Amino acid sequence: MTDNNTSNNSGGGNAGLAFIVGGIVVVLAIVAYFVFARGGMAPETKDVNVDVNLPEVSAPAVPGAN
């Protein structure tokens, strides 16, 4: 009985998986940059003009209060 096992599994089949995981990491890094740093762009200023002047509303006259 000899122990001559010549199967050398060095994990070379994981290169595709490593490429996919690396791509996902790069995409997530780019998304995080735009979410947290807003891509280095200045925030857009918006002109907010709200008019709250309402016409005066009077209560209806009470009948027989003359």
Description:
This protein is mainly α and 66 residues long. It has 1 helix and no strands. The protein is rod-shaped. The model has no long low-confidence stretch (mean pLDDT 80).
Q: Which labels suit this protein?
A:
mainly alpha; rod-shaped; 66 residues; 1 helix; single chain
Low-confidence residue ranges: none
Number of helices: 1
The share of residues in extended strands comes to: under 5%
Helix content: 25-40%
What form results from the Cα inertia axes?
rod-shaped
Round the Cα radius of gyration to an integer and report it: 36 Å
Number of strands: 0
Question: What value does the average pLDDT take?
Answer: 80
Structural class: mainly alpha
Largest sheet: none
Order of helices and strands: H
Our measurement of the CA-to-CA distance between the termini, rounded to an integer number of angstroms, reads: 123 Å
Q: Give the oligomer, counting copies of the same chain as homo and different chains as hetero.
A: single chain
